[in-house]
Amino acid sequence: MKKSIRDFHLAHKKVIIRSDLNVPLQNGKIVDDTRIKKSVETIQYAINQQAKVIVLSHLGRIKEEADKKKNDLKPVAKRLSELLEKKVIFIPFTRGKEVEQAIANLKEGQVLLLQNTRFEDLDGKKESQCDMELAKYWASLGDIFINDAFGTLHRKHASNVGIASYLPSGIGFLVEKEITALDTVKKPKRPFVIVLGGGKVHDKIPLIKNLLPKCDQLLIGGGMAFTFLQAEGYEVGNSLVDVDSLSFCQEIVKKYAAKIILPIDIHCNTAMEDQPGKMKDINELEFNDIGLDIGQKTIQLFKKYLTSAKMVVWNGPLGVYELSNYAKGTEEILKYLAEKQIKTIVAGGDIVAVATNLHIEDQLYHVSTGGGATLKYLEGTSMPGLEKIEEE
After folding, report:
1. Which of these is catalytic: 60, 109, 349, 380?
2. Please, what is the Cα angle at 120 between 115 and 123, to 5 degrees?
3. Which of 13, 88, 328, 392 could bridge to 81 as Cys pair (CB 3.0-4.6 Å)?
4. Is 335 exposed, middle or buried (0-12, 13-18, 19+ CB in 10 A)?
5. Nearest to 274 by CA among 297, 298, 290, 296
6. DSSP-assigned beta bridge partners for residue 218
7. What is the pLDDT of residues 58-110, one digit of tens each?
8. Residue 175 phi, psi dihedral angles, 5° rounding
């Protein structure tokens, strides 16, 4: 077991908390504050323990100077202040005299947020490539390091692996909850059903290889379904096909024919537009059809397998949910899982966004904040940000 924030005496200590405050911004305003809300528990605990709290986070990608303006953490500091009901001191720098002076003046129970750690990427990608000189500098600002940014555990950055190399370290409550929930997949209660959607098959190959032997059914929708359908010999028209993954699909369907459940009808159109289309059985698709959602027969088929499920893991939408006419498959199946109280883990930005928009997060067993990190964890691959944390 990794050390957690509970294992440290925090009073009077400068505690660096690496949070995941990477929220979507539009014209300087926060579109979805879920990740900020999920970060509050760990920060509040440190405040209650009379720590001097220093928060680090990235926001977006910084490839050029112009990216700084749209990825400034100032709006995040304001929202964090509101959620904590406490002023968060925002320092618009990642290092330097202003940072050092502000930390020197920090009192017990106060919170300070530094500027976006990826601002350091403009100078040789020092954050993203784990520059150890930068990590050592950040570590020099604190006494204890707590990693609560689950979304970056699969990356080796200066602000996670780097700082943990120099300070006593543990995980925060968000990371602890993510790991606890995702570890249930290692020995799932059966029937265990996986739902996969989204675009390219290639991105999901490691996940499929790791989880398919463990599951009872794999229900496939979204764009990736058409690669499997074409591999099975169906005409899929102008639907999305990941040509490079066709041989993988053929091989995996042959090996696990009884487990893999593909759509039997499709809601399609001849253009990618938000206009009502036609429901067609999969053997009726024509050369100019574009599959945009699973059909009603498929919705009922998927429900049949989900009804008896004891655990469900879902990644990726089952249709082009951004178009209201083609959101039905994803929304109806998700609401069904919530209503039937089937133990469900949803992971990945798109499907999490649907759950959030439907206001059903609290009815699901676990809504992961991780995105790519969650997939990597479920794939069973290494998580550098976690491996570097001290053991109990």
Report:
1. 349
2. 150
3. 88
4. middle
5. 290
6. 194, 260
7. 999 999 999 999 999 999 999 999 999 999 999 999 999 999 999 999 999 99
8. -65, -40
Span 174-230, pLDDT tens digits:
999 999 999 999 889 999 999 999 988 998 999 999 999 999 999 999 999 999 999
Cα separations in angstroms, 293 against 304, 326, 354: 18, 5, 15
29 Cβ neighbours under 8 A, 6+ residues apart = 75
| CB-based contact 268:292 (threshold 8 Å) | yes
CATH of domain 5-174: 3.40.50.1260
Selected catalytic residue, list 35, 118, 126, 204: 35
- The owner of tokens 């655990």 is 311
Q: How many Cβ atoms sit within 10 Å of the Cβ of residue 307? A: 12
Q: How far is CA 346 from the centre of its chain?
A: 9
Other beta carbons within 10 angstroms of residue 220's beta carbon come to 28
- 10 Å Cβ neighbour count for 135? 23
How far apart (Å, rounded) are the C-alpha atoms in residues 8 and 262? 50
- Give the separation between CA 131 and CA 125, rounded to whole angstroms: 8
* CATH code reported for the domain at 184-379: 3.40.50.1260
Of 37, 86, 125, 200, the active-site residue reads 200
Of 12, 38, 13, 35, whose CA–CA distance to 25 is shortest?
A: 35
Round to whole Å and give the CA distance between 7 and 92. Answer: 31
Given a contact cutoff of 8 angstroms between Cβ atoms, the answer to whether 155 and 23 are in contact is no
- This prediction has a pTM of 0.88
Alpha helices in the chain (DSSP H): 34-48, 67-70, 74-84, 97-104, 132-140, 163-164, 173-183, 205-211, 224-231, 246-255, 296-306, 328-339, 349-357, 372-379, 384-387
| 35 carries an active-site annotation | yes
Instruction: Tell me the two tokens of residue 10.
Output: 């925090």
CATH 3.40.50.1260 domain locations along the chain:
5-174, 184-379
DSSP symbols for 46-74: HHHTT-EEEEE---S---STTHHHHT-SH
Tokens of 112: 């300070």
Radius of gyration of the chain (CA): 23
Instruction: Based on the residue annotation, tell me whether 200 is a catalytic residue of this protein.
Output: yes
Question: What are the structure tokens assigned to 298, written together?
Answer: 């498929």
Q: Answer whether the bond into residue 191 is a cis peptide, omega within 30°.
A: yes
pLDDT of residue 352: 87
